[in-house]
């Protein structure tokens, strides 16, 4: 009984600490609550908004605030009678899911490569040359090669985008690690005989965490932007269960003269998402900097 | 320094060889390759012999000759990209320096917010927004017919001709380039501002710069004699790392605006399943990007030999 109450009080304390951390600066407050809203929207498309892409409504309705607009269709409907707000919710959810999976893929692969580069120095020139070849091809070119040889598949496009941004990410993280490795306190730890694995895991990584988070934030932004452009151009369209924001932009181009909100709202969704993630990153960096100072 | 340059040249040659292998492999292993009976070496040799000599051998490769491809495909894209880089540096560099040296936090916050807003905008979205604002009559054609794209001559051609009416020709040439250049300048400009401002701020806080402020009479002397020469060697490689993104954006803008160039040519090749176009674009992109990177690396060392000593030692 005592153990349970201890455990519950620990959970309570950590929740209070987390809440205090979130409320410690304005960037984190806006960013965290914004991201919580995004997560809520993504998980409530079915049960709260009942969003479907079935063309069951009247065609080409304008947004609700315009003449002839219907309050049940806030952003109006498209040429096929699909509700644009529902379309936005589903496309947004799909975009976030795809971007997160590509970002995760790059972060994991880069972690492995960074470890390899750190511990096996002769691999550096080999990886450097491979990365130079990869960054010589813009993602659209790689996407076309893959689409012609393999399939115009969204998973392939995600891999292409991931690979396009992998070299830069690995290089930047490697740069931060090597800069930290050359600092005096690390040399002191090495002279104390602390194993290299321990130094990198317990001293270097925590100290480069702000830079690491910034890199991940930039990676996320780059991936969602590249994904939107490529899907807008029609790549990865062969196995779409739900269209993403790029596909939505492409579809809404046909009605841009009748209802420009249908097109521009998808871009605004991306801008807001990226800004919120950058705000969270900025807030976390401020907290970590304060901790470092103290 | 010389050893550093030789090393860079040597690694460029290896890279060039790898790129040539990749581009030939795309053609050799393509599903509609009718010359699969040739060995890879023979195919590789024939491809480059035909490419460089313009003599058709066994490969039914190209509808155009090499000079036409260079003039109508690679040159417009390179020109557009270079103009965007030029505009981005002209606008972004001074703003970056000012924001790096500025102690006005409100200015920095507004600039940062503006940069974030523009940086977060998807390229196609912002391009269409600008097109709508500029009231250009435009509609997007997804399945491009390359023969119907807007063709253009290049700045180099106009400047090299002995025509008395160069100025009107230049104006005629630059006017349609304005819209794509404006759209393309946004992202590199933001990157330039961010990189320059960060670097200038870092260098400005160094002790030797503080000493220089005491020794020199004017602050512009500190800026041009000490601050910028120490900041630029690290800025240039960081900027050139974004060339791939710029080339990607240039191709997308060409597709959106249906302009003659690598983007439309590539998409045309994709819809026609023309692997020769794909192979040539792979090679072209690879050469453009790696050459610009090599040039930037060598230029930094040549212009600022003292400041870039950590690079080549």
TrEMBL record, chain A:
Keywords: Cell inner membrane, Cell membrane, Membrane, Transmembrane, Transmembrane helix, Transport. It is found in: Cell inner membrane; Cell membrane. The chain crosses the membrane at residues 26-49, 98-118, 130-150, 156-173, 219-240, 260-288. Residues 96-281 form the ABC transmembrane type-1 domain. The keyword rRNA-binding does not apply. It comes from Frischella japonica. CDD domains: TM_PBP2 (cd06261). Gene3D superfamilies: MetI-like. InterPro entries: BP-dependent_transpt_permease (IPR050366), MetI-like (IPR000515), MetI-like_sf (IPR035906). Belongs to the binding-protein-dependent transport system permease family. OppBC subfamily. It is a multi-pass membrane protein. It comes from the Bacteria. This is ABC transporter permease subunit. The keyword Transport applies.
């Amino acid at each position: 009984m005592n153990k349970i109450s201890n455990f519950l009080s620990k959970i309570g304390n950590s929740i209070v600490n987390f809440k205090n951390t979130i409320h410690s600066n304005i960037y984190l407050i806006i960013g965290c609550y914004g991201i919580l809203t995004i997560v809520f929207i993504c998980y409530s498309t079915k049960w709260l908004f009942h969003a479907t892409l079935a063309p069951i409504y009247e065609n080409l309705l304008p947004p609700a605030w315009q003449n002839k607009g219907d309050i049940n269709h806030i952003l109006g409907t498209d040429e096929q009678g699909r509700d644009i707000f529902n379309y936005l919710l589903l496309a947004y959810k799909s975009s976030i899911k795809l971007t997160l999976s590509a970002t995760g893929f790059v972060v994991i692969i880069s972690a492995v490569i960074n470890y390899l580069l750190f511990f096996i120095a002769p691999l550096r020139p080999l990886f450097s040359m491979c990365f130079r070849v990869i960054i010589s091809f813009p993602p659209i070119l790689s996407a076309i090669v893959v689409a012609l040889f393999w399939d115009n598949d969204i998973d392939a496009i995600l891999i292409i985008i991931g690979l396009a941004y992998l070299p830069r990410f690995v290089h930047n993280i490697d740069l931060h690690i090597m800069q930290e490795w050359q600092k005096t306190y690390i040399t002191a730890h090495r002279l104390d005989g602390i194993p290299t694995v321990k130094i990198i895991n317990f001293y270097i990584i925590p100290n480069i965490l702000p830079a690491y988070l910034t890199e991940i934030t930039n990676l996320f932004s780059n991936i969602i932007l590249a994904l939107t452009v490529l899907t807008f151009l029609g790549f990865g369209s062969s196995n779409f269960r739900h269209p993403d924001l790029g596909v939505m932009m492409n579809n809404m181009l046909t009605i841009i003269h009748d209802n420009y909100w249908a097109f521009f709202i998808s871009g605004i969704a991306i801008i807001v998402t990226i800004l919120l993630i950058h705000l969270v990153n900025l807030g976390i960096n401020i907290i970590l900097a304060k901790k470092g100072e103290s | 320094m010389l050893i550093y340059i030789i090393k860079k040249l040597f690694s460029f040659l290896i890279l060039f060889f790898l790129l040539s292998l990749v581009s030939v492999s795309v053609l050799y292993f393509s599903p509609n390759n009718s010359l699969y009976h040739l060995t890879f070496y023979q195919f590789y040799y024939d491809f480059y012999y035909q490419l460089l000599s313009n003599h058709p051998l066994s490969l039914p490769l190209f509808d155009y000759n090499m000079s036409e491809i260079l003039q109508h495909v690679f040159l417009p894209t390179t020109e557009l990209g270079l103009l965007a880089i030029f505009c981005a540096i002209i606008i972004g560099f001074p703003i970056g320096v000012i924001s790096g040296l500025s102690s006005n936090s409100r200015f920095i916050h507004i600039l940062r917010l503006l940069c974030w807003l523009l940086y977060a905008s998807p390229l196609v979205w912002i391009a269409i927004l600008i097109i709508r604002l500029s009231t250009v009559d435009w509609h997007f054609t997804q399945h491009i017919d390359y023969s119907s794209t807007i063709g253009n001559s290049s700045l180099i051609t106009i400047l090299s001709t002995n025509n008395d009416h160069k100025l009107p020709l230049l104006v005629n040439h630059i006017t349609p380039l304005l819209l794509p250049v404006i759209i393309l300048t946004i992202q590199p400009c933001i990157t330039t501002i961010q990189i320059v401002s960060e670097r200038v701020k870092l260098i400005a806080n160094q002790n030797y710069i503080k000493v220089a402020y005491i020794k020199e009479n004017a602050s512009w002397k500190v800026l041009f004699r000490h601050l910028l020469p120490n900041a630029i060697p690290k800025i240039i490689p960081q900027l050139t790392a974004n060339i791939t993104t710029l080339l990607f954006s240039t191709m997308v803008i060409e597709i959106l605006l249906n302009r003659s160039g690598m983007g439309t040519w590539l998409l045309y090749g994709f819809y026609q399943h023309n692997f020769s176009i794909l192979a040539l674009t792979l090679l072209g992109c690879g050469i453009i990007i790696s050459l610009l990177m090599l040039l930037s690396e060598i230029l930094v060392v040549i212009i600022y030999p003292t400041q870039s000593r950590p690079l080549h030692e």
